[in-house]
Amino acid sequence: MKKVFSKKLKIIYVLLICLIVIYLILSYFENSIRDILFPIYTVKDKTSNVLEYQKKYPNSKFVGWIKVQGTNIDYPIVYNNQKEDEKYDYAWMNDDISEIKDFMPILGHNILNVSSKPIISDDSMVRFEQLMSFIYSDFSSKNKYFQITIGDKNYLYQIYAVSVIPANEVLYHYYDFNNTSKNKYIKKNLSESLYKYNVNVNSKDYIASLYTCTRMFGYQYYDLKVDGKLVKNVKKGYNYGMHEKENYKKIKNVIKGDGKNV
After folding, report:
1. What number of other Cβ atoms are within 10 A of residue 241's Cβ?
2. What value does the mean pLDDT take over residues 34-40?
3. What is the per-residue DSSP string for 15-77?
């Protein structure tokens, strides 16, 4: 009887030790497990939105729809800007497309949020003004996806770079890329990015870049650029690593208002 009882105690001790070990492992890898199992973004179907705008505003050419995580950017994409007689919030492309391309530059206006300390939570700001939220690393660490709707399909993009570039460079981002020039463009994005994302991207990936203007550095004309790569056949986005790079210090100084970089 004592032997049986002793054996049961040993089993209980072993089970307790196993449970403690499992608990410690789960606690240690809590963030990683959460990132793998729980999505931080789910694609919303926007095809009906495009059809609705096509009927409501027949004089405009609608290419698709853009929605950016963590912002109120949830607008139609029009071809080559809005018609003057039709008033609505929008983004635009310089390509009249009916299906996804391997590189898509998308632009939106920023009129009210151009200062050296952008606002991130004012819903009265429209167009691409809340894209400036990505200038803050805390915001960028929580919001890492945008989606584009073209035709009858919704596509999920994973952000791999955020940068502030001279406005005159934007014009050069409209040419058709071959593998060599596209690879150079991606490397430049990664180099200029304010953050290092744990995302692998190369010239074979479908990519998109979102642009809006800013006056973070005073009177000089700059654009904030958010770059993403297509996550194929996926409707949910999961978390992944991101941290500030050395060149983010300049942005920090500007936001603090020390005047050295303005």
Report:
1. 13
2. 72
3. HHHHHHHHHHHHHHTHHHHHHHHSEEEE----HHHHHHHHHH-TTS-EEEEEEETTSS-EEEE
3-state secondary structure of 151: coil
Residues with Cβ within 8 Å of residue 226, at least 6 apart in sequence: 68, 131, 134, 146, 159, 161, 162, 209, 210
The SS3 assignment for 138 reads helix
- Going by pLDDT thresholds of 50, 70 and 90, the confidence category of residue 140 is very high
Q: How many CB atoms lie within 10 A of CB 250?
A: 15
Whole-angstrom Cα distance, residue 77 to residue 92?
A: 5
Contacts with 90 (C-beta within 8 Å, 6 or more apart), sequence order: 75, 76, 77, 78, 82, 108, 127
Going by the DSSP 8-state scheme, the letter that residue 124 receives in this structure is T
Residues constituting the chain: 262
Q: Is the pLDDT of residue 128 over 90?
A: yes
Average pLDDT over residues 51-76: 94
| Helix, strand or coil, per DSSP, at residue 243 | strand
Global confidence as pTM:
0.84
